[in-house]
């Protein structure tokens, strides 16, 4: 396992990747941040040893190294999901690689459906906590203790200092930034009416199919992490609409400029 990580890192270093201060994982329809990056190097996922390949059509497949707001960053343009048939180790492998490259902090974005119906489409939610409903853990494998502490504390999976900066930035730019609990499910099917009711009962404010595995591994590696979710649809069990992927992408695109502002402001302050 360590050898696989080292091989991927050596490949990226041979392609000119340096030491990033911050890693960024871009979620569904959230690629405009790259327009702000001074890109120095790129590597396609299918060329990086042991990297999975993104199979979702609206997820790209590149690892990008460059400068944003004066910080060296490594950016995942496209992420991996369990519903693509990958293992939890596959999904989180890039986080371990970015850490070995030198990453000190991790920022994550995703698209999600609102369980809390006070959250409207194209608004943003700062993830304060999460519920893992994916049916497994990215730390549940033989030899995990060689990469970090097996029994990882999760009392504060999302860094309070970075969250505070995000909240201050939202006030500065007059951006609606809710704060809530993100539930991560397996997918790829969307939730039933009964499942939306269940998610509300257990305390979820939004639901999606990503993020939690990467955040668990970041905590395993001792990396402060923050995450923002774009609300792309609403899970109202009493008035449940049929899913429209184009509508989801359109809402992600509508929210994207605000996401970019918040990410840039955070990078400037950390």
Automatic annotation (TrEMBL):
The protein's enzyme class: transferase
Gene Ontology molecular functions: purine-nucleoside phosphorylase activity
EC number of this enzyme: 2.4.2.1
Keyword Glycosyltransferase: yes
Pathway(s) it belongs to: Purine metabolism; purine nucleoside salvage
Xref: Pfam families: PNP_UDP_1 (PF01048)
DNA damage listed as a keyword: no
Ranges of residues in domain Nucleoside phosphorylase: 22-267
Any single biological process term in GO: nucleoside metabolic process
Gene Ontology CC terms: cytoplasm
Keywords on record: Glycosyltransferase, Transferase
Family note: Belongs to the PNP/MTAP phosphorylase family.
General function of this protein: The purine nucleoside phosphorylases catalyze the phosphorolytic breakdown of the N-glycosidic bond in the beta-(deoxy)ribonucleoside molecules, with the formation of the corresponding free purine bases and pentose-1-phosphate.
Protein name according to UniProt: Purine nucleoside phosphorylase
Native source species: Christiangramia echinicola
């Amino acid at each position: 396992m360590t050898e696989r990580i080292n091989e991927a890192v050596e490949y990226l270093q041979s392609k000119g990747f340096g030491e990033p201060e911050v890693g960024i994982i871009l979620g569904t329809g959230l690629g405009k941040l790259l327009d702000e990056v001074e890109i120095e190097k790129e590597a396609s996922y299918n060329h990086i040893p042991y990297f999975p390949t993104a199979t979702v059509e609206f997820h790209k497949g590149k690892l990008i190294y460059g400068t944003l707001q004066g910080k060296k960053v490594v950016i995942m343009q496209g992420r991996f999901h369990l519903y693509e048939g990958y293992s939890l180790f596959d999904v989180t492998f890039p986080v371990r690689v970015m850490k070995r490259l030198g990453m000190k902090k991790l920022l994550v974005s995703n698209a999600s459906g609102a369980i809390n119906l006070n959250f409207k489409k194209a608004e943003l939610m700062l993830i304060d906590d999460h519920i893992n409903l994916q049916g497994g853990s990215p730390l549940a494998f033989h030899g995990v203790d060689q990469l970090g502490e097996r029994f990882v504390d999760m009392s504060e999976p999302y860094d309070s200092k970075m969250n505070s900066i995000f909240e201050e930035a939202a006030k500065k730019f007059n951006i609606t930034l809710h704060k809530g609990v993100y539930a991560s499910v397996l997918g790829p099917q969307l939730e039933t009416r009964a499942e939306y009711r269940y998610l509300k009962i257990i305390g979820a404010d939004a639901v999606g199919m990503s993020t939690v595995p990467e955040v668990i591994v970041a905590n395993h590696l001792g990396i402060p992490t923050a995450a923002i979710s774009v609300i792309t649809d609403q899970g109202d069990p009493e008035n449940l609409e049929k899913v429209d992927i184009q509508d989801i992408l359109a809402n992600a695109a509508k929210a994207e400029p605000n996401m970019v502002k918040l990410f840039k402001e955070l990078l400037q302050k950390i």
